[in-house]
């Protein structure tokens, strides 16, 4: 079962894409254009808000942001 935090991120993504009713945990958010270069920074802030973890922009690993599963593993596993 997904954490409450990752469900918050899923809702954040879906709120920006009303044509969608779900995002699969393994769907690549960048390749599917659910997150683009303009919304990436907003995504980072949404993750920070939902997880309580400050993300260092100087050390971002893009692989941590590819899918909801990778976001959950990187930022919500210890929450």
Automatic annotation (TrEMBL):
<dbReference type="Pfam" id="PF00550">
    <property type="entry name" value="PP-binding"/>
</dbReference>
<dbReference type="InterPro" id="IPR009081">
    <property type="entry name" value="PP-bd_ACP"/>
</dbReference>
<protein>
    <submittedName>
        <fullName>Phosphopantetheine-binding protein</fullName>
    </submittedName>
</protein>
<dbReference type="InterPro" id="IPR036736">
    <property type="entry name" value="ACP-like_sf"/>
</dbReference>
<feature type="domain" description="Carrier">
    <location>
        <begin position="1"/>
        <end position="79"/>
    </location>
</feature>
